[in-house]
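hi! just following up on the protien thing from before. the input was this:
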Amino acid sequence: RDPFERAVSHYFHYRKAGEARRSLAAMAARFPDVIEASLFGRHARMWEELLPGRVHYLHYAQLRADPAAFCAALCAVLDLPFTAPLAALSGRAVNAASVPRSAWAAWLGRRAAETLRRFGAHEVVNRLRRTRLKRRLFAGGGDIGAEREAIGQEARRLAPIQADQAEFAALLAAQGAAQVEGQGAGRPVLGAQSLG
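and the predicted 3d structure came back as:
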């Protein structure tokens, strides 16, 4: 997944949970995983060292644009017969970014769910998630387009992600994996061009 979009998505994960609107840098200072989870170069290098020749890269944009081609490549990597994804799943918004009507209510709902899980009441939480309660607590706070745009612009200026993206692109290029939808160093790679 594009590392900048990944950081924006993670930012909105915390906003949806009731965190106040702030800059991406301020959110990352409070929750370092906002940036850390987007550092693919660091993670890829570690996996390449642990499993040389066995790491494959598939691009998230390909999953969104052509789920069948993505699944075909995934099945090829895993040496499994191809199974086409269900058409009903294509194009569905899953975990879409939103902000809550009330940050306080979202925060309280999240803490209540964590407490229930801690005491083993996972089924109660799962049942509640299937009701309208989740949507009422964690959505409905209005249009986030302007906030998403501002956070996206800030993400593209963050040096740690820029440096890591360059490292990841260099890793892919060194493996001959820079072709789009091609074979790179004997590995199926979808959209492994520059992620910017």
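Confidence is low (pLDDT under 50) at residues 178-196.
The two ends are 10 Å apart (CA to CA).
cheers
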